[in-house]
Each structure stands twice: as C-alpha cells, then as structure tokens.
Amino acid sequence: MPMIRPFAGLRPVAEHAANVVAPPYDVLNSAEARQQAENRPWSFLHISKPEIDLEPGIDVYDPQVYQKGAENLRKMRDENILFQDEQPCYYLYRLVMGEHSQTGLVAVASVEEYDRNRIRKHEFTRPDKEDDRVRQIDALNAQTGPVFLTYRHDPTVDALVQRVTAGEPEYDLTAADGVRHTLWRVAAVEDVETLSSAFNAMEYLYIADGHHRSAAASRVAAMRQKDNPGHTGDESYNFFQVVLFPDNQMEILDYNRVVKDLNDLSVASFLEAIKDRFSVESSPAPVRPEQPGQFGLYLEGAWYRLQIKENWIPQDDPVARLDVSLLHDNLIEPLLGISDPRRDKRIDFVGGIRGLAELEKRVDSGEMKAAFSFYPTRLADLMAVADAEKVMPPKSTWFEPKLADGLVSHVLD
Hints:
This protein is an alpha+beta fold. It has helices at 17-20, 30-37, 45-48, 63-78, 111-115, 127-140, 155-164, 189-200, 211-226, 267-274, 323-332, 356-364, 379-387; strands at 4-5, 10-12, 82-84, 90-97, 100-110, 119-120, 142-143, 147-151, 171-174, 180-186, 205-209, 239-246, 252-253, 255-259, 278-283, 294-299, 302-308, 347-351, 370-374, 398-399, 410-411.
C-alpha cells in the first residue's frame, strides 16, 4: 500500500479564499467561533463548528450539530464557494509566522500504513474526542481537518518544493492572527510521481498533531469496509488528509505548567527540597530555559533557574528523559503530590505562544502559586518516543503555526 497519494481536493474559489479560511476547529470554543464567524457567511467555521448556527448552549456532540455541518458544506458547494479539482494532485502549503517559515505537502495518507504503525503515534487518544471526529467525518463524507505529519527531510523533495513554490500560488493570504498561508497546486505528472516515490520509500512518517483525527479516519475506514462487499482498498475512505512538513523546518514551542499550591510546603522548605535533585539559582529576569534539563520557576514575584542534576536523568528511556518527565518525576509528583496531570485540577498548562508574561500573570493574580517554564521538546525526542512505540506525557509539545481549516478538504467518494 502506498504511504501517500494525490487526491482531488475540495477548496475555495480564489476570490472567496480569504473569507473561507478559518482557525482549526479545536483552538476556539463555541462562543469564540460564533464571534469570529459573525457577518462571515462563508467562514469554514460554519462547517467545522456548526453549533454556531444552532441555539446557544447546544451540546456540541448533539446529532443536530453534525447534520448542520453537512448542510453548510452542501450549501457552500451549491453556491460555488467551494469546488473540487477534477484530477488528483498534490498541494504545497506554506505557513509564515514572524520570521519562521515552513512548507509542507498536502496529500492523503494510507489508513493501512497508519494501522501498521508506519505512520507513527506518540499520544493516547480520548474516546469522546475520537467519537466526535468519527461522527463529523461520517456526516460530512469528508475530512476537513488535516493531520499534521513530519518526516526526515529529503533532498529530492526539498528541490521540488523549492522549484514549485517559485511559481504563482493558488492562494496567498494573511489571517487575522498575522500568519500567512500560501498554497500551490502540484499537478504535473512527473512531479506527482517524484513526490509519491520519495514519500513511499520513507521508512516512517510521524504524527505531530492530529492523533484523534487519524484514529477517527481509521475507524471510519473500518466501518465503511465492513459495509462494502466490493471493497478493494483503493476507495477514498482508505486514506486520510495530511500535511507533511520536513523535520528541519518544524518549530515546537515550550509547553509550560502552573500549579495552585505547594502541597502544604512553605516557600523556604519547597526551595530547599528542590535542591536535592536540582541546582537552584535566583534570576533577576524571567527564565527562558536555554537547554534541555533546565527549567524556570516563578514563585512569589521572583524567578529561579533550575538545572536537574545529571545523575537523575535516565539515559535508556526516551520518555523518562523528556524534560516534561524529568520535572514531573523529580518535583511535581514527589514534592507537590500531583501524580496524574491529566486529571488533577491543581495543575494547568500554558502554551509557549502566550509567553512568560502569561505565567507571571497567572501567579501574580493569586490564581496559581507557582509556574514552571520549559525548554521546548525536540522533534528528535518525539521521533524517538514514537519509534520506541511509547507515549509522551500530556501537554509535551506545542506546535506553531497552526494549520488553517478550509484551504483543502478530502471528499470521501
């Protein structure tokens, strides 16, 4: 089974692209989506967050929500806001945020290779979120949220991307958050074959973001195969939409922690207890860690730089040596008594995009007692965990910039 293949994308006509493109469905709540889509009848939020067109307060998992999304998708196709390319092709998608730029390949990937773990995972999924994506894909008969994949960069792919992106794009627009989104279509037969050969020869691909979407696509494929006595394996439901970015262009931001209390420890005794496994020094400025194993601590208006001692860093376990594991195993659990960060309400997580000032704000307001800043998880560490077929701790990675919804969708014929 090929790892990836081209597809006939469903996408906006050029003059409506800026009005269609929207933030990904999972970064906005219903109220925020309703506000963003106000006076924007063709925003893709009407498809990805269709509860905004129903009565406020409706359960986002109500069957009416999925039905409304399908209705809105049909309307946008009927009104010629969206159209489907006639021939299968690839697309190149560039994201520019500030000084950072990354260019990925939009394709569909094999569910079979995902199930075989050639497309590798590093997170657990939640059944309720999986169920939601299954219902959404099934109702729309389309995959509208691409899975974010990465791969070890390849010179053949790099050369083709550089050549194609020197040409005229299909879309070039800047979203409200300042991120620039540019899309090129790759339709020449020889270019399609070059890309297919390069990716199908790769040993593994890696999920960066989109574990629930990929798991849901696998479940939909299994459902449809069961209901199709003439199943061949070539049907579109056997593939799911992805955007593949090379590892040398990816940017992972820090994913920081804030805690509500010191587990009945005084500030002095807490700082003293940390010294058993970390070196601790005061810092006159906010601490943005400069290397793995280093952490910032903000407590009672003061910053400290923590460095874990070498003898507490496991060398043979790709999960245990992650910074998020090192702080949890050597401080958050033994000193603060937080054993399950997924469920414990005493801990919260702050994406690095919000900056260190957000950590100070959460503590200075009295909402939280202390904050910890992290060095970003490295992509090589993510790949090592996936290759070991292990799972990363929750909230280990924060990828920016985010993929937009609405530029290209995959219709299940």
